[in-house]
Every structure is written in C-alpha cells, then in structure tokens.
Amino acid sequence: MSTDSILLKVEDLESGYGQSQVLYGMRLQIDAGQCVTLLGRNGMGKTTTIKSIMGMHLAWKGQVQFNGANIRNLPSHRVAQRGVGLVPEGRQIFPNLSVEENLIATAADRRKKSNPWTLSRVYQLFPRLQERAGNFGNQLSGGEQQMLAISRALMTNPELLILDEATEGLSPLVRQEIWTALALLRHEGMAILVIDKNLAPLLRLADRHFIVEKGQIVWEGDSDALSADPDARQKYLGA
Ligand SMILES: Nc1ncnc2c1ncn2[C@@H]1O[C@H](COP(=O)(O)OP(=O)(O)OP(=O)(O)O)[C@@H](O)[C@H]1O
C-alpha cells in the first residue's frame, strides 16, 4: 500500500487522566476512502483515543498524523480545519438553535471540494431534517439529533468522518437509517472511523476492524477475518 493513501495514522499513543494511564501504545490506520471500526468493551479507551486524535484530550506520547502532517495535540478547531469531522458521543447539538442554524453554525468548505455538502445535500441524505428544519435542537428525537450531528459534521466537508457511538440509544428502525446513510457516504468515498456496539452492521459496512483492550490494539483485520474468528469476538467483544 502506498503511503500516499494513508489518511490517518496513529502510533504509540499514550494518554490518560491524572495519574491513571488509559492508552498504552494505541495505533490505528485509516486509508483514504476506507471505513474502519474501533471495537472493544466499555472503558477500554475508544473515546479517549478519539478525543486524543481530535485534540480534545492531551496525548502524552506518540504520533497522530493526518494527510502526512503531525496533528498531535493541535486544538480541536484546527484538527477540524484539516478535515476531520466528529460526531461526538451524546451528539452535543446546540439545543437552542434550530436544525438549520445548527447546520450552518460550523459549516465550512476550506478545501473547495467539487461537490461540497450543502443544506440541500444533507436534506437529501436525511429528509426528516428538512421537515424539522425550523425546530430547535431540544425538540428533536434521539434519532433526529443523531442525523443532525452527522449532517453538522458533513457540513464542515471533512475528509474523515468519526462517529463515537453511532447508533447508541436509537430504535432499530432509526439505527437502520443511520447505517444506510453511512453506507451511502462510504460508497461516495468518504473515509469513516466508527465506534458502535452493533457488530453485524459494522461487519457489512467496514473494510477493517481494530479491537482495543486496555488501551492497546489486540486484534486487527477485515470483516471476513472477524466473522471467521469467534474466539476473538467472544474474548474481546462478548459477541
Ligand atoms: N474524564 C475522565 N476522567 C477520569 N477517567 C476517565 C475519564 N474519561 C474516561 N475515563 C476512564 O478512562 C478509561 C477509558 O475510557 P473511554 O471512555 O476512553 O473508554 P471507551 O472504550 O470509550 O468506553 P465506553 O464504551 O464506556 O465509552 C475508563 O476506565 C474510564 O473510566
């Protein structure tokens, strides 16, 4: 694989909270256009990894490279400017802004893409948001909030979309809508890093999986390999 196609590369990452170390040499690689998952039981360090990539949490040691440039411990807005869009755990949409205002608030097209994300494009992806365009963030259902959080990240025209707990707390029907939208984005060439507890849709969606246990990668492979490894699924995911 040529290094030109490497979008995100995380190596030897160490981090934690106060005296308590959480990441012990985390690593991760996402190539352009690839969909990658970060899997593992609760408390293993997935969110800490994402926050360290995004500059929302201090990385103590190691490398975080995006498009060949060092982004370790850059402020979050600078990481976003480089082309990383985050859909955070808990969604964190603005409750007192309308759907449309939420979408416009952080929109940007810094890389002058040929087909940038616009209001009409995100409304095409999630027609429900158009119906709710004038509603405030706090008037939306959980599913609508997640659609809004994804759309808001898309409006920054990212090269890499990161979703922490993509479908947590959503009904099966809404979950399916989210998976369908992510499959469409992947088909269009968007690189995606996704954390979620539902393995079956991730096996269909993703090119590669990284399993984290106690702050380090203990298994890596494609969907066929993970499907064919019930021991790893049981041991690391309880699935
Ligand atoms: N703000 C914090 N202060 C102290 N410890 C924290 C903080 N956030 C997370 N931790 C601890 O760091 C460890 C890793 O947490 P992290 O949220 O990264 O795990 P995770 O794999 O994302 O799990 P989950 O699925 O539960 O979100 C856990 O032991 C957690 O208790």
Automatic annotation (TrEMBL):
Protein name as catalogued: ABC transporter ATP-binding protein
Keyword Nucleotide-binding recorded: yes
Family: Belongs to the ABC transporter superfamily.
InterPro entries: AAA+_ATPase (IPR003593), ABC_transporter-like_ATP-bd (IPR003439), ABC_transporter-like_CS (IPR017871), BCAA_Transport_ATP-bd_LivF (IPR052156), P-loop_NTPase (IPR027417)
Organism from which the protein derives: Castellaniella hirudinis
Ranges of residues in domain ABC transporter: 8-239
An annotated Gene Ontology molecular function: ATP binding
Keyword annotations: Amino-acid transport, ATP-binding, Cell membrane, Membrane, Nucleotide-binding, Transport
Lineage: Bacteria, Pseudomonadati, Pseudomonadota, Betaproteobacteria, Burkholderiales
Pfam families cross-referenced by the UniProt entry: ABC_tran
Record flagged with keyword Cell membrane: yes
SUPFAM superfamilies given in the database record: P-loop containing nucleoside triphosphate hydrolases (SSF52540)
